[in-house]
Amino acid sequence: MKKAWIIVILVILIAVIWGAGSYNNFVTADADVKLQLGNVNTAYQQRADLIPNLVETVKGAAGAERQTLTDVIAARASATQVKLTPETLKDPAAFQNFESAQNSLGGALSRLLVVTEKYPDLRSQGNFPVLMSQLEGQESRIRVERNKYNQAVRDYNVRVARFPGNLLAGIFGFTKYPEFEAAQGAENAPKVNFGTTPSSTTAPADGSTQAPAATAPKPSDQPHGAVRPAPVK
Q1: What is the pLDDT of residues 82-117, one digit of tens each?
Q2: Please, what's the b/e burial string for 39-63 (b: 16 or more CB within 10 A of its CB; e: otherwise)?
Q3: Which of these, 147, 126, 142, 140, lies nearest to 57 by C-alpha position?
Q4: Looking at residue 183, what DSSP letter applies?
Q5: CB of 20 within 8 A of CB of 165?
Q6: Of 32, 45, 146, 153, which sits 20 to 30 A from 121 (CA to CA)?
């Protein structure tokens, strides 16, 4: 009889030790996810903080792109209003709203950087190259932090789903977290072409898009049978 009680006590003791260890592992994995979530939020906020200066700089040299600038401002306002907290992290709708708002802002920024290529004078704006470098670096950091978050979530979700830990996970209220999905083109940080622009395609200082009159090549400049380069679009 004594042996039976000893066995029961040992089984209970082992179960308690295992349960405590599993719970601590869940707590640690959950903390890692929340830490990475904070890093993601910080990276997105730092990108948002760069946008007002970027918009003002572009507005001064490319005022014709008012609609694009308006879209960026509106997207930024929407993105900064949507916050992702540990509490809302397990709400699929809230998570989707956050990701959609940030992706919309990223798309608006990409469109802005594309149209700024029509204004070579922007390269002479002291703040513009600096802002572009900071923005590109921030986009890279966002990708890194999102990847780290996804990895932390995968590790956590495996613990929650794996038997027999899943039995305790349900008891203690540990449920799965969602992962960020890569948006189309998210692997490419927005870039602006800072290469040398041929003088024949340089926009006038007044911002007009009328191309300068082409100069007819001299016979010596155009060998017979040479293929002319395609016009710049």
Answers
A1: 888 888 888 888 999 999 999 999 999 988 888 888
A2: bbbebbeebbebbeebbebbeebbe
A3: 126
A4: P
A5: no
A6: 45
Length of the chain: 233
Running DSSP on this structure, what letter comes out for residue 164? T
180-211 pLDDT, tens digit per residue, is 987 654 444 444 443 333 333 333 334 433 43
Give the Cα separation of 224 and 29 in Å (integer): 71
Nearest by Cα to 131 from 218, 56, 202 = 56
Q: Which amino acid is at 123?
A: R
The residue type at 155: D
Which amino acid is it at 63?
G
> Coil, strand or helix: which one is 65?
coil
Among the listed residues 42, 39, 30, the one whose alpha carbon sits nearest the alpha carbon of residue 152: 30
Q: Which amino acid, 200?
A: S
pLDDT digits 0-9 by tens, 4-52: 777 777 778 887 887 787 888 889 999 999 999 999 999 999 999 999 9
Phi-psi region of 19 (alpha: psi -120 to 50; beta: other; left: phi over 0): alpha
Which residue is it, tokens 């986009």? 139
Task: Find the DSSP H helices in the chain.
Answer: 2-61, 66-81, 92-115, 127-161, 165-172
pLDDT score of 184:
53
